Amino acid sequence: MGDKFQLIHDVSPGTTGWTVKVVVAEKFSPKVAQRSPTKYQNLTLMDSEGSTVQATLYGQNITAFQDELLLGKTYLISNALVKETNAEYKAKSGEIQWTISGRTRIRRVEENNSNLLISTYSFTDFEDLPKYMDSNLDISVIGMIIDIKPRRIIQTRFGKECQVQDLVLVNKRKKLILIGKHLKVTSFNGLSISTKADSSFFIDGEFELVEEFKSWGHTNSEIIDNMISEKHYLTSTPSKLSSKLSVPTAEKDFTEIKNIQGLKTAKQFFWIKGKASVKVLNQTYWYMSCNNCNKISSENYGDIYPCVFCKCTDAKAIPRAKVYMQLTDPTGYINATAIGNPAEYFLQSNAEILMNQTLIPTAASMRLSMDEDEIFYVKAITQELSTDCKFEILFIVNPSQIAGDKNTGKAPVEHIGEPIKFLEPTTKRSLFHSDTDDAQSSKKKT
DNA sequence: CCCCCCCC
């Protein structure tokens, strides 16, 4: 690994303009937070000196980056959100954590740093594993996986559901162990196993097979040979254990087709008549976005890039307006966000101007409050385990525009709102995309 | 749709 980049220790909260070259040393399974519905995924990143930092992905970023940050691969990373871990969670405060999101720039580097990774592990013999049962210690083993069972749900002692997936491993001396895949630890090229109170071994995360183990997969040991020859592995996403599965060979392994439960949506929509105003002047009124899916981008304005979110190969980075404001009517107020067109309409500005604006805005540079009532179409998202909703303004209608409009039931907001369902697709599309529809759809196919 | 944050 080169040395023209910063090291993990060089990056603190507030450090700007840094780039660190790292290897993805561990990749844990995505999990659901205990006290909120948030999904998160932890990674361990290692620099050239073997220092590590915990990196975390949240929500939709988990799937967006699943093929972007591969176990054992090397990357240049910049512009991650760097902060100290919450003292509430960590005994020792001051530990650094990176949050990886859409604005984090990640560049793959074609370097093989697996020796660096392997040098940081010591492997435990299968024979010694019983010693570690119930110890809650993390240890590493090295072996070959010869069977992967379907995932199943178990209840933990604390009443929480978690997924378990059993694996059968064999070591060089053909000794077999059964391992449940569980919420715990992973390592590179070996499997890091944690022993839990119910006396099974658990692993977590992703791993790779070491070449030398692949080569002794076909041995003359009867039972192992049998298992290997009978099993077919689905390996559509080789780096991801959960996508690998042994195809069952016995009738009892097949399940009858049953319930698919729909997820209840918490979204609610409202019409509100009132006034909007910016209360927090010092905010960012734009973000760099993908012109295809509107999601955040780490690229520079105008650059063509492959979008990790929509997978569009020739996405263009363009600014998109956003504003956090307060919505009031005679009965009260809510805070709400507007993005894209409603933000531009409210601010009486556009994304490019907002992007180039360096000073905190004044009423001269943009509209910060409304003189007259306007009509807002607001989406509320109820937050589980939280009393407050988040609100978003989907579009804004000036009452003068609908005065005398006989076409009731349709919002005459063509140049104000974002495209919404009850506008004709042909009319709304042309308003917000400079490209033709054909260009849009051909991009999505790639 | 999109932003922010977000966990042990």
TrEMBL record:
Molecular function per GO: DNA binding
Origin superkingdom: Eukaryota
Residue ranges constituting the Replication protein A 70 kDa DNA-binding subunit B/D first OB fold domain according to the UniProt record: 4-99
InterPro entries: NA-bd_OB-fold, RFA1B/D_OB_1st
Chain segments carrying region Disordered: 425-446
SUPFAM superfamilies tied to this protein: Nucleic acid-binding proteins
Entry keyword set: DNA-binding
Record carries keyword Lipoprotein: no
PANTHER family membership: OS03G0429900 PROTEIN
Name of the featured protein: Replication protein A 70 kDa DNA-binding subunit B
Source organism (scientific name): Abeliophyllum distichum
Lineage of origin: Eukaryota, Viridiplantae, Streptophyta, Embryophyta, Tracheophyta
